[in-house]
Structures are given as C-alpha cells and as structure tokens.
C-alpha cells in the first residue's frame, strides 16, 4: 500500500492560515496588554493631578 500525502498547495494554504492565526492571537494579546497598561497609567496620572491641584486663599508670613 502506498501512503498518500497532502498536496503542496493544501500544505502551503495550511501554513499561511496557521501563520495568520498565530499573528492574530499575538496582535490581540499585545493590544489588550498595552491597552490595559496605558489605561491604568492614565488613571494614575489623573489621580496624581487631582491630589496636587489645590488653592491657597490666605498666606500669612511673620518674622520674629
């Protein structure tokens, strides 16, 4: 009995599909990762700017 194999065209198509799928998963992972990092750092900057913004109404200075 002879062993049958897949044709070179189907093998090429499978390699392309697998490569595109891996790239898609990698892109989705890195986009989600960096998106969450930038969002959390943006929230930290907003919190720090809220803490540092204040108003001084009266200033008293005395020299003893």
TrEMBL record:
Bilayer-spanning residue ranges: 6-29
Domain Archaeal Type IV pilin N-terminal: 5-54
Keyword Transmembrane on entry: yes
Keyword terms of this UniProt record: Membrane, Transmembrane, Transmembrane helix
Domain of life: Archaea
Pfam short name (any one): Pilin_N
Protein name: Archaeal Type IV pilin N-terminal domain-containing protein
Organism: Nanobsidianus stetteri
């Amino acid at each position: 009995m002879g062993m049958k194999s897949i044709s070179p065209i189907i093998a090429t198509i499978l390699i392309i599909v697998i490569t595109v799928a891996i790239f898609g998963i990698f892109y989705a992972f890195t986009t989600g990762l960096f998106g969450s990092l930038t969002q959390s750092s943006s929230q930290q900057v907003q919190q720090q700017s809220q803490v540092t913004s204040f108003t001084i109404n009266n200033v008293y200075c005395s020299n003893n």
